[in-house]
């Protein structure tokens, strides 16, 4: 049976109970394809299939799991060009982003966790010596008929959690799902994947690659839908043991409530309002290049972006001026055209939301230095002009709330302590940034920032470093080996020496 427009449940391509909905190209407003709309019963069936497949998959030798993940990466790489075209069409990414940051990163993550499947899951702990006749443990051992107390050995063993629901974000339909599915499978879990409704087609291609690579039926299941009911069912399904979610804090809070009632494990990567603290002695060219990625990378639809710039008074005007010049050089338009830097945002509704925030910022008293008006071309598509708001104050909503678009706000500060306080004055704490020529100060400030990650003089990421947020930016950590830990439970095994 063809996979086109069908759900993937228990190793079979299934007709959706809810029919289909259109996936729209954000750059042209054309229909890319039809995505299946699952019913609650079909989502529950996917979770049941995953639960049925879990015992055998969790006992599958790590070498076998690694081979399947490696083979899946090869299959994805084989069809790289076609995958990139689909990813670009449904997400609106520029050609370079669709190829290099979406599909290529997705393939790389499967390769990384093929190796991850072979990482040790057992850690020997120091033996505990209990002298006979002393302490509660020795008496307890005697009471249980184990004779004299002596040496107790122990292992900490990482065990798979069980069935993991993976709810993915729309800004990267390859890297984000791969970053959940691959480590979950490497650890011996089975998965139910609920893709973002805006761009689910890429995730079905990923499932097809895994099936071709030899993933047993039920190990990977994909159910999509434009209705919130599909995601809700993927969270509350009785067979689901853990939910891994990337998306807004508001949705994450609702998911957490359901998980709390069922004591389901959670991994949450939520919103961000990254502070970029720029000191007087900073390399402004480096700072501008880093902050400027917000205007272009995914059209600002990225939670790690340095959207909140805190500039020390001595460089404030110079930084605003340089950011304005940087912004003026960015080409907005068709993401398929050579030279385009800023493509569309994901939907008309999101474009309108971003524009409403810019209007709100102007009303609140921010100075619109650049942008603020809808681009005149292209005529079709969901385009937003990269926008710079200066002279902002900490109480403004454009400073406090995640806009998730190509909008940067700038605030001045005087002393180091004030810069730190402003950076921490946020409900979010995903990734912050510090630019300073004084490395000792940069690291001192970094340690004071309440964020899951801090970039010092860079917006680059080390892909083995733990990733996740403080405060309302999330729960838990993944990336590198930390992702394997996130999709596991710790078991203690103790024995007499």
From TrEMBL:
It is an enzyme of class 1 (oxidoreductase). Keywords: Oxidoreductase. GO terms for molecular function: betaine-aldehyde dehydrogenase (NAD+) activity. The keyword Cytoplasm does not apply. It holds the Pfam family Aldedh. Residues 13-492 form the Aldehyde dehydrogenase domain. Its EC number is 1.2.1.8. PANTHER family: ALDEHYDE DEHYDROGENASE-RELATED (PTHR11699). Belongs to the aldehyde dehydrogenase family. This is Aldehyde dehydrogenase family protein. It comes from Streptomyces platensis. The gene is gbsA_2.
């Amino acid at each position: 049976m063809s996979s086109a427009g069908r759900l993937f449940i228990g190793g079979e391509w299934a007709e959706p109970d809810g029919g289909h909905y259109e996936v729209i190209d954000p750059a042209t407003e054309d229909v890319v394809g039809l995505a299946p709309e699952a019913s609650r019963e079909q989502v529950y069936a996917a979770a049941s299939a995953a639960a049925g497949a879990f015992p055998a998959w969790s006992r599958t030798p790590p070498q076998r799991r690694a081979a399947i993940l490696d083979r899946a990466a090869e299959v994805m790489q084989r069809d790289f060009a076609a995958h990139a075209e689909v990813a670009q069409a449904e997400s609106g990414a520029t050609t370079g982003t669709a190829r290099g940051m979406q599909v290529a990163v997705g393939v790389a993550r499967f390769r990384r966790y093929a190796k991850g499947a072979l990482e040790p899951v057992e850690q020997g702990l120091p033996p505990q010596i209990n002298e006979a006749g002393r302490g509660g443990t020795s008496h307890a051992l005697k009471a249980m008929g184990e004779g004299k107390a002596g040496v107790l050995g122990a292992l900490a063993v990482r065990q798979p959690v069980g069935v993991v629901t993976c709810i993915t974000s729309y800004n990267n339909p390859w890297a984000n799902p791969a970053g959940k599915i691959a480590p979950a499978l490497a650890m011996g879990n089975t998965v139910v994947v609920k893709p973002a409704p805006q761009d689910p087609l890429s995730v079905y291609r990923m499932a097809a690659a895994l099936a071709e690579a030899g993933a047993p039926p039920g190990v990977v299941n994909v159910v999509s839908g434009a209705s919130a009911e599909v995601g809700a069912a993927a969270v509350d399904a009785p067979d689901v043991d853990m939910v891994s979610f990337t998306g807004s804090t508001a949705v994450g809070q609702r998911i957490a409530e359901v998980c709390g009632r069922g004591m389901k494990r959670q991994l949450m990567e939520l919103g961000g309002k990254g502070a970029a603290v720029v000191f007087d002695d900073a390399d402004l060219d480096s700072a501008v290049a880093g902050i400027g990625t917000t205007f272009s990378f995914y059209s600002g639809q990225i939670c790690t972006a340095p959207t909140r710039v805190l500039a020390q008074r001595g460089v404030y005007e110079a930084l605003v001026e340089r950011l304005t010049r940087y912004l003026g050089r960015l080409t907005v338009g068709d993401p398929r055209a050579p030279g385009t830097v800023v493509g569309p945002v994901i939907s008309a509704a999101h474009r309108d939301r971003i524009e409403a925030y810019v209007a709100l910022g102007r009303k609140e008293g921010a100075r619109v230095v650049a942008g603020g008006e809808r681009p005149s071309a292209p005529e079709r598509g969901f385009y937003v002009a990269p926008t710079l708001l200066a002279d902002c104050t900490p109480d403004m909503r454009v400073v406090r709330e995640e806009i998730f678009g190509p909008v940067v706000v700038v605030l001045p500060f005087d002393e180091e302590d004030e810069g730190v306080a402003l950076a921490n004055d946020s409900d979010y704490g995903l990734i912050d940034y510090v630019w300073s020529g004084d490395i000792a100060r940069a690291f001192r400030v970094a340690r004071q920032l309440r964020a899951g990650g801090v970039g010092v003089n860079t917006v680059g990421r080390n892909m083995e470093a733990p990733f996740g947020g403080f405060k309302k930016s999330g729960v838990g950590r993944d990336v590198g080996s930390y992702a394997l830990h996130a999709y596991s439970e710790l078991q203690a095994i103790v024995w007499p020496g």
